[in-house]
Amino acid sequence: MGNADLTEIIRKSMGLDMFSLRSNIVQNVLIDALPGNNSSSFSPLARYLNNTTMFLGKYIGTNFFMQALLHLSAMDSSKVVRSFLVPDLSLDLELSLEWNNPLSTFSLFTQPDEFVGQ
User: Fold this and answer.
1) pTM of the shown model
2) What tens digit of pLDDT does each residue of 89-112 get?
């Protein structure tokens, strides 16, 4: 089963119109398995999911398209603003809504950000 088959199965099972998954998980696992590779201080989940990106899109009626972009990054846990599953895995999220109407196409988007209290 190839990557295209996996993304198609996920897209259909979630009822999405668009789905894309890009990950270096195989490369990250192989690098982690190399003898003498003790350079990373990240948790295994953060190391394997580092630089993983997911794009999800869904048409709502004929005029609206909602989309989300999620990007996972391994980073020092003291610098992570939003943790995802483990403290050293950062989640960057962007949500948008496009409205296609006779005048033009309007796009509304947000990139939620949390600030660490000092």
Assistant:
1) 0.76
2) 888 889 999 999 889 989 998 877
CB atoms within 10 A of CB 72: 20
DSSP state of 78: T
Q: List residues bridging with 50 in a β-sheet.
A: none
CA distances from 16 to 5, 9, 12, 93 (A): 15, 10, 6, 18
pLDDT digits (tens, 9 = 90+) for 61-93: 999 999 999 998 888 777 766 666 788 888 888
72 neighbors 35 (Cβ within 8 angstroms): no
Question: CA torsion sign, 83 to 16 to 59 to 53?
Answer: positive
Query: For residue 83, what are its two tokens?
Result: 């943790």
Amino acid at 38: N
With beta carbons less than 8 A apart as the criterion, state whether 51 and 23 touch. Answer: yes
What is the distance between the alpha carbons of residues 91 and 53, in angstroms, rounded to a whole number? 10
